[in-house]
Structures are given as C-alpha cells and as structure tokens.
Request: fold
Amino acid sequence: MNNGERERFSKTIDPVETDGRDIDTALAALEGEAAQQQIDGDDRRLTQLAPEPNGADATYYDRPMLKQSVWSIDIPIYYFLGGTAGAALTLGAAIQLVSPREHHPLRHISAICHWTGIIGSSAGAAFLIHDLGRPSRFLAMMRVFRPTSPMNLGTWILAGAAPAAITTGLLVNRPGLAGAIGEVTGYLSGIFGAALAGYTGVLVSATAIPIWQQSRRWVPVMFVASSVSAAASVLDVMSGGRHARAITRLFGTAGRLAEIAAAQAVEHAASTVPKVAGPLHQGPSGFLWRAATVLTAASLAAPFLPRRKRSLSIAAGLLGIAGSLCLRFAVHYASDASARDPRAAFQQQRAQ
Reply:
C-alpha cells in the first residue's frame, strides 16, 4: 500500500492494509505468474476518468451496444451463390411449365437453369459449411423444424433445393418413369428455389443491426431482385440463342430494375435516421454499395444498345453478376460497420 492509500484509510473503523488484491494469505497462497507484482505509484490506466457524456448525443461510454457478426467472407459468397441458384431454379421450373414437350426449344434453356441451380446450391452449401467450421453444425440445425426462425428454415430450404435440383438435372427430358420423376422434381426445385432466392434477405432483416432493422421491409425484396438479376446474367453469359435473349431481356430487365429500385428504397428507409445510413455512404461498404448500383445500371443498358451482338450479351451478363456480387459484399460489410457504431443504435432507439 502506498502513502496515499494509508492516509485515505487511516481514519476508518477498520483500516485497510492491503496491496489491492485482497488475498488472505492464511487461506490462499499467491503463486504463479505475476504473483509478486507490485504497483509503483499511480497506475494511469486505473485512474483514467471515464469520458464525459454528451447530453445531446449520449452513448454508453462510446461502446457499441451490439457485437458484429463472426461471419467470414464465405457468407456473402453464399448469399450470391444461393440466391442465383434459387432464382435460376424458379426460372427453370417456369420454362418447364410452358414447354411441356421434351424437344421444345425452351427445354435447352430450362436445362441451363437447372444446372446453374445445381452448381450454385451445392457450392453455396460448401461455403456455408466452411464458415460453420464442421459439417456436423449444419446437421445440428436440422434436429428441429422451426418456421419462425429464418436460419433454421433456411437450412431446410437449402437441404431440399440441392437434391431436388440434382435429381431434375439427371432425369428431366428422359423417357418413361425417369422423365416423369424429373418433371416432378423440377417443379419441386422451383418451389425450393423461390424460397432460397429470398430467405437470406429475411435472415438479414431479422437481426438487431440498426441499418437493416431500420429498412427491414425492403431488404428481402432487394435480395430477391438481385437474385433474379444474377440468374438472368448467368443465362446471358451461358446462352446466346434467340429464345434465351428474349427470356433474359424480360426476366433480367425486371430483376435489374427491381434491384436498383429496392436498393434505393433500402437506403431511403435507413436514412430516416441519418447516422444509421452511414455505412451506405462511406467506407468499403459505401464503395461496394455504389459500385453495385453502377454495375447493375450498366448491365441494364447493354441489351438496349442499337447493335445487338453476342459480345454485348456476355458483357451485360458479367456486369450483372459483378453488380449482384458487390451488393452482397456491401450488405456484409455494412452490417459490421453498423454494429460497431454505438451512435447508430442509440439514435435509432431514440427516433423510435
């Protein structure tokens, strides 16, 4: 005990004679690393005053209210792959419905959609399991079925989409019973695909992260639209036939317009509390957010250029894929930035 402490406690009823650790050596022994450590003089780290609160913009000592996610970049890649696969499976089922004959020219496009769904859902599941660390953790989420949990429901959706898509890809357009099974699983994969394209948006908007909680009504719409845009972009790159161009021009244009409009709606809703929308305007997330809009707008303009060439279709597809991918990474990094900002959470709660 230093001299200041002796003066402080000298007039108390029970004077304190201690080194600050309050260890009764009659009951316990001080052993191990730093057991004999003594404090010489005042420890500035212990005597440092807490920051003065600002009445106009108070926080809890400038400490974040929320913890940022522990997700790696595997998750935004999964957002992109799973969403693209889901929209492609839905489009494949729709084409399958309007082209009942096995040798119909649209069946080729349907096959591309199904194989896009197979690759996307399988690779997306691999990235998701890699982020979880062990496959057993993915299986552990399937011990229960809880429709009120977007994460649990998404696990079941992914578990159903990939097998249905694989079965369809292997059996559809075949004669006999195998072809009939492929037809049924094709429609089933379309149902799973529609859910797969949008459930991740519901998962993001159901969190307490200020930026997505503030714009929760539009985030799922944005995810579905981006998935449609990405699926049409893949079809632009993979197929250049007349029927494919007609479908992607309609399907892709609708998806890209909806993606831009939904992203603007998300930004407008988040900007209701200006501090909440900060990650969409600054830092890496802000750059990716703006890049997504520019790339998607560029892919939207390419199909309407006067000279329609195969190279323009590929360019539009690549721009659309890049725009959708940037959007998913913008969501990932904006989530972390919003969780780290204590003022965003406090100001959002005061506004409500």
Notes: The CA atoms of residues 226 and 324 lie 6 Å apart. Confidence is low (pLDDT under 50) at residues 45-51. The chain has two domains: 69-206, 209-345.
